[in-house]
Amino acid sequence: MATYRITYSDFELSRLEDAIVRFPEGQPMVPQGNRPMILPGKIEIRSSDGDLFRLRAGSEFHIENTLEGLQPVISGEVFAINAASWWRSTRSCYTCKSHSSPPLQILMRPHNSNTDEYLLAMGSTVIHDFDTSGRHFVICSLEEGHKAYVSHNPDVPMGPSRYSVQIDRMSDSDWDYVHQEYLDNRLWM
């Protein structure tokens, strides 16, 4: 299992003391089974497997045992770079490591109460989930330079009919947003 360490925050980490572990030397770590961290500001988390997650204020992050094993579980606006493990959104579904073409740069953010927006700046990936019997199904495939609006109907049992998808090309403003907010490393140092 990967370990997760906090490499940047724009707020005092003591506000997360119930959700992180501090070591005498080194960076704070996010333990398995930690309480969800509701972030009061921006934070960057890196894993020992090479994952890099950049999360905005109001996002949540924790590690739990999912159908794909121990994985980050997130909600809110999250950008992932070169992710080796793939994370579960608490609002909708998984992204899929085994069907991805790295390196990946993907932004997931809420669009409305039942829809998440996935913007893929680099690579290709599959967004998927598991039905009520634990069987895997694909929601959509996403190619570089495209975005997907993945809507879910919470009144429909888990399965392919729960989701609807709209795929579009990323607009110039989408590209500008990703570059200005997430790829400019000066904002995350």
Walk me through the structure.
With 189 residues, the chain is mostly beta strands. The protein has one domain (4-188): Jelly Rolls. Helices cover 6% and strands 51% of the residues. It contains 1 helix and 14 strands. It has one helix spanning 172-183, and strands spanning 4-9, 29-30, 37-38, 43-47, 52-55, 60-66, 69-75, 78-81, 88-89, 94-112, 115-130, 136-143, 146-152, 163-169. The strands form 2 sheets. Strands 1, 2, 4, 5, 8, 10, 11, 12, 13 and 14 form a 10-stranded antiparallel sheet that branches. The protein has a 4-stranded mixed sheet with strand order 3-6-7-9, with no helix packed on it. Strand 10 and strand 11 (115-130) form a beta hairpin. The mean pLDDT is 82.
**Multimeric state:** single chain
Average pLDDT confidence is 82
Could you tell me the radius of gyration in angstroms? Answer: 16 Å
Please give the domain count.
1
Low-confidence stretches: none
- Quick one: overall form? globular
- Briefly, what CATH class? Mainly Beta
SS class: mainly beta
H/E topology pattern? EEEEEEEEEEEEEEH
Q: Give helix % range.
A: under 10%
Distance between the termini: 26 Å
* CATH fold-level label: Jelly Rolls
**Number of contiguous helices:** 1
Largest sheet: 10 strands, antiparallel
CATH architecture: Sandwich
**Tally of strands:** 14
